Amino acid sequence: MTKRGYAVRPLDEFGLIRSWTEGRQPREFLAQAGVTLGIGDDAAIVAGGSAAQEWLLAMDTMVEKVHFLNETMGESDVGYKALSANVSDIAAMGGIPKFALVSVSVPPSWDADRMKRLYDGLYECAERYGVAIIGGDTTSAPNQLVVAVTVIGTVEAGQAIRRSGAKPGQFVFLTGPTGLSAGGLHGLMNKAESLSLRLTQAHQRPSPSVRAGRILLEHGWGASLNDVSDGVASEAWEIAEASGVKLLLKETLLPLSGELASYAHDNGIQPLDFMLYGGEDYVLLGTADKRSEQEMRVRFRAEGIPLFVIGEVEAGEPEVVMETASGAYKPVLKQGYNHFPKG
Question: Are 303 and 216 in contact (CB under 8 A)?
Fold first, then answer.
């Protein structure tokens, strides 16, 4: 989601979600209801229409002035991004997005023409990723627009890739460079003349990594997986905590795009901050067995999808550490946008 600032998460939204939901429904009840995986990953997994498949369900919400600003996003961009964020959650499980439900709460400032442009963006994204928009809800709102989207996808039964599969000895990878969306937001907010079209589009029209997720699932390569929605640091911590392992990232292996490097240089910015903490790039961060690396590189190259090995998984208490360019080691903070900061 579009960030207006970054903060260390003393009690982050995931901790609050656990405090609100943990233990509320017995595991036996959830299992009888057909729930394979509930709260705590990119998407829930429930029993599908046949023994061969399961359903993936993901929901995301965009709130005006929290997740997007009129100064940085056009109406169609808001619609496009609202759906693409959910498509990315399905991609992060190795699934195929199929259906969407869209709920909008519309304030007086959003007239019929503005809402039509928003839906133009929604349907443009839906067409690109083969998603059928099949319903939702419409209400009024007093001040800001709220767009909530639920996407339903499919995945082969028992094959969804989770955050919890990382094991010592595996390598850590990204399916694309990060920091571009944060660079785009920074440039749009500051009306920077040097802002490239690629950075602008990375922020306004992100591209979920559906094909990359499918390659990882179809070949059994993805041991653990997350989409980079809240930043590499945040997503790496989620994998480390879910899997009970230590992730060692290497600064010299992190992919820095030429456009971000140029923009950062022109504006006196350290690109590493955007790359680790920016978020909303919707590339995939994951781990895989080292014996699969060469095959993965060949297949991803054949499909025109980047693949960057950026570190490795080690045994130890859950944490994320960075080996810097100088060879020193420093902790990577569990840092990112926090909807519920203290104070």
Answer: no
Are both 92 and 218 inside the same structural domain? no
- CA proximity to 42, closest of 239, 247, 318: 239
Tell me which residue of 154, 140, 145 sits closest to 81, measured CA to CA: 145
Q: Please, which residues bridge with residue 44 across strands?
A: 57
Q: How far is Cα 127 from Cα 125, in angstroms, rounded to an integer?
A: 5
158-172 pLDDT per residue, tens: 999 999 999 999 999
Query: What string of DSSP letters covers 203-238?
Result: HHS----HHHHHHHHHTT--SEEEE-SS-HHHHHHH
Nearest one of 227, 253, 250 to 239, comparing CA atoms: 227
The predicted model scores a pTM of: 0.88
Q: Are residues 168 and 151 in the same domain?
A: no
Q: How far is CA 158 from the centre of its chain?
A: 22
CA distance 156 to 291: 24
Beta bridge partners of 46: 35, 55
Of 156, 187, 221, which closes a domain? 156
The verdict on 122 and 176 lying in the same domain is no
CATH number for the domain spanning 34: value is 3.30.1330.10
**Is 266 among the annotated ligand-binding positions?**
no
- How many domains does the chain divide into? 2
The answer to whether residue 191 sits within a structural domain is yes
Residue 137 assigned as binding residue: yes
Positive or negative, the Cα torsion across 88, 205, 187, 309?
positive
Model pLDDT for residues 120-134, shown as the tens digit of each residue: 999 999 999 999 999
Asked if residue 42 belongs to a known ligand binding site, the reply is yes
Q: Is 339 annotated as a binding residue?
A: no
Whether residue 148 sits in one domain with residue 113: yes
Picking from 281, 322, 241, 320, the residue whose alpha carbon sits closest to that of residue 3 is: 281
67 among the known binding-site residues?
Answer: yes
Q: Is 79 annotated as a binding residue?
A: no
* 268 annotated to a ligand binding site: no
